[in-house]
Amino acid sequence: MSLKEAARKPIGVFDSGVGGLSVLNELRAQLPGEDLIYLGDTARVPYGTKSSLSITRYATQAARALIEQDIKCLVIACNTASAVAVEPLRASYPYLKVIGVVEPGADACGRVTRTNHIAVIATESTINNQAYQKAILSRDPSCVIQALPCSLFVALAEEGWHEGPLVEAIIKRSLEPLIAAQVSHFKKPIDTLVLGCTHFPALKRPIANVLGEAVQLVDSAETTALYAKNMLSCEKLLNPQRVGQTRFMVTDGPERFARIAPLFFSEEVLSSEVELVDIQHYAERQNSH
């Protein structure tokens, strides 16, 4: 297959639900010519409270469903799945470019921080897995990292509670350990906060209001899209077409998915255009080969 033919293949994107649409939105902005296929595993959301074994199994099934669409690149638009399953997927599919959201976020921290005191907020599984902590420290062992689970933020984002005094009050209460650290014994204050869940960019404004201008926010959706763009460019796999198409697949509730999608994605999503799929079917086909 020629590079020109490979470049015209779509990019596959998957998440445990709708939060990964924030990554899809950035991919569409950065790569307008690409065909994108998004799979939301809405039947089993959230991944953030599941075991590593279950997350890897779900991610493998989602990946297989997208690989059967003949994709050129797989973007794991889920911090939890990236933290747990990116290496198993790379090992299973060495011929495929697999991009998670953790590594681009860790790279961005090194470019942004000036005090080397970094905070990470994410789901419980992502924090417990220490994926961001390990990735950041592997790049700069001198960094001091505070990690805080903020699973409640997922519910706020999905319900459309993206701003206002009540939202800021909830965020302030949730981030109290980080706020306290700003005036504690640390010689250098936190100056960088990683939004380690793809739902969290929807809350960027109230989080910034609570923490103040001294703390820079690293958006994993934006950094992942830029990473994908650079990678495809280097591999000469950018699609030359002017306008790409977007397909949506979910494992449950296409109507609810279409209703919530505008909270994370800038284009209209019609429920009639959201395909309902059974990714267990893909796993069974994979295992039978």
Automatic annotation (TrEMBL):
Catalytic activity: L-glutamate = D-glutamate
Active site positions: C78 (proton donor/acceptor), C197 (proton donor/acceptor)
EC number(s) stated in the UniProt entry for this protein: 5.1.1.3
Biological process per Gene Ontology, one example term: peptidoglycan biosynthetic process
Residues that hold substrate according to the record: D15, S16, Y47, G48, N79, T80, T198, H199
Family annotation (PROSITE patterns): ASP_GLU_RACEMASE_1, ASP_GLU_RACEMASE_2
Pfam families: Asp_Glu_race
UniProt keyword terms in alphabetical order: Cell shape, Cell wall biogenesis/degradation, Isomerase, Peptidoglycan synthesis
Pathway: Cell wall biogenesis; peptidoglycan biosynthesis
Gene Ontology molecular-function annotations: glutamate racemase activity
SUPFAM superfamilies given in the database record: Aspartate/glutamate racemase
HAMAP family: Glu_racemase
Homology family: Belongs to the aspartate/glutamate racemases family.
Function text: Provides the (R)-glutamate required for cell wall biosynthesis.
Protein name, as recorded: Glutamate racemase
Source species taxonomy: Bacteria, Pseudomonadati, Pseudomonadota, Gammaproteobacteria, Oceanospirillales
